[in-house]
Plastocyanin
Amino acid sequence: MSSHTRFRAPALVVTALVTLILGLLGVAPAQALPASTSPTTWTVLVGNQSPDMAIQGMRFLPDDITINSGDTVNFVANSAEIHTVSYGTPPLPPTSLANLEADAFTPAGGPVFDPNASWSNSGILATGGPFARSYQLTFNTTGSYKFFCVVHGQMMSAMVHVQPTGTAYPRPQQYYTAQGIASAARILADGYQLWRKTLAQSSPTHVFVGAMDDQAMVMRFIPSIDTVPVGTTVTFDMSANQGLVPHTVTFTSVPSGVTPPDSGLLLGPVTFPVTFTAPGTWNYLCEFHDDMGMVGSVTVTP
């Protein structure tokens, strides 16, 4: 099987899953739930990913939910990629790593949502590393509020509609959960399609450093396994990323006597050319995303 066809099966499975879930949503009961004066806790997933973490989604699941005053939303990390749950007016999108760290990494506001605050932020949420796994926010003020991920900007946003206490709920949690599963499947299908498209544009001398559109990110070097003759220059290219995403091309093992190349931080549509001056296996990784499997190798033949 060629590298250009290896994504076909996952994409077909994802498409079938979307069709099934949308069918279930179509027959879900539409009537409102009985009114309740007891506070309810709702779950919203933050991001999603493929089982191998190659595809990272940039959506809240669901991205629109109606609750009552006094209720709490539990925002739960659902991917290795970092996200935030933020409200207010920081610089968007982030223009540098320093700007990103200043806005994203520091929590702001308390456990009760204040719509009049200039800035409310969960801090970083992720399923791994030293980051929080969830963020609980209680809503005591009616209205509609737009939250977003400061890492990925307005493309990753969610609306929380807050009704008066005791109002009948239009949808149960089960509906929002099924809706989120359907959205996650569509995002993965988009990610696999992006991966295929980027792979078709690559070559042994042109390796893309990840890929990103307005729904998903591919956390892989494309292609990640390469073979070239000695003396060949390979261009590592960031241009497939639609947005600010940091990567590196950091070589971890090279033939004896060779100084390992290191791109340093790569941001924006930049390139990093490497001339392979000695035969052998040259292994490299992205320092930000190697835990997601973003590693590669170039076999250099005599």
In short: The longest strand covers residues 153-163. The chain is about 20% helix and 35% strand. The two ends are 27 Å apart (CA to CA).
